[in-house]
Amino acid sequence: PPTSAAAATASGCLPIVHPATLTAAAGFPWRLANLVYGIFDVAGTPSVDAFGARRLVETARDLQYFADCYCPDRAARRDPEVSPLLGDLAGMPPAIFTAGTEDALIDDTLLMHAAWTGAGNRGWLDVWPEGPHGVGHFGPHATTRLGLACRAKIHSRISLFLDELP
Q1: CA–CA separation, 163 vs 161, rounded Å?
Q2: Residue 25: what are its φ and ψ, rounded to 5°?
Q3: Going from the N-terminus, what domains does the chain have, and what CATH number goes with each?
Q4: 138 exposure class (CB count in 10 Å sphere: 0-12, 13-18, 19+)
Q5: Does the pLDDT at position 43 exceed 80?
Q6: Where is the Alpha/beta hydrolase fold-3 domain (predicted)?
Q7: Count of CB atoms situated within 10 Å of the CB of 101
Q8: Three-class secondary structure of residue 79 per DSSP
Q9: The predicted structure's pLDDT at residue 115
Q10: 106: helix, strand or coil
Q11: Is 26 exposed, middle or buried (0-12, 13-18, 19+ CB in 10 A)?
Q12: Rounded mean pLDDT, 4-23
């Protein structure tokens, strides 16, 4: 299978829900997932609600808009095919989880990492103090010392994983 899949922010759940739905009988199609500050519960987590109108990259209202665009039916957001945090995660590949403490989606990352590893999968979690949404990839901390350290850590984790492959 392909070696890895990566996704961030509003599309963060897609490498989990889309291929898992299409290939449930064949198993998960990737050997490593790099999940960077994703939305894993489209219905919303406490940190999204608590973030309010504060804008570092996005506000809680912006995230609600993204959720409305992705899944207008609010009841359907509780479906694991929409919100993978709510699904059976057994048999998933190893995954790298990354978020900053100033990210409205931090609970999505923390809860998904806990669910992922709780289902028996390997998972690495990196939480960046004072890192906003997009740390290391876009926005105000794409190329700051913090952003560069975040990106270097992700690259290091991917390299270490690849070194383990036969």
Answers
A1: 5
A2: -70, -30
A3: 4-164 (3.40.50.1820)
A4: middle
A5: yes
A6: 30-135
A7: 13
A8: coil
A9: 96
A10: helix
A11: exposed
A12: 51
Among 159, 68, 46, 142, which residue's Cα sits nearest to residue 100?
142
**Residue corresponding to tokens 């990106």:** 151
Mean pLDDT of the 30-47 span: 88
- Is the predicted pLDDT of residue 156 greater than 80, yes or no? yes
pTM of the model as a whole: 0.83
For 147-162, give the DSSP string: HHHHHHHHHHHHHHHH
Single-letter residue type at 110: L
d(CA 87, CA 98): 20
Mean predicted lDDT score pLDDT of the chain: 82
Three-class DSSP labels, the chain:
CCCEEEEEHHHCCHHHHHHHHHCCCCCCCCCEEEEECCCCCCCCCHHHHHHCCCCCCCCHHHHHHHHHHHCCCCHHHHCCCCCHHHCCCCCCCCEEEEEEEECCCHHHHHHHHHHHHHCCCCEEEEEEEEEECCCCCCHHHCCCHHHHHHHHHHHHHHHHHHHHCC
Token pair in block for residue 47? 């940190």
Alpha-carbon radius of gyration of the chain = 15
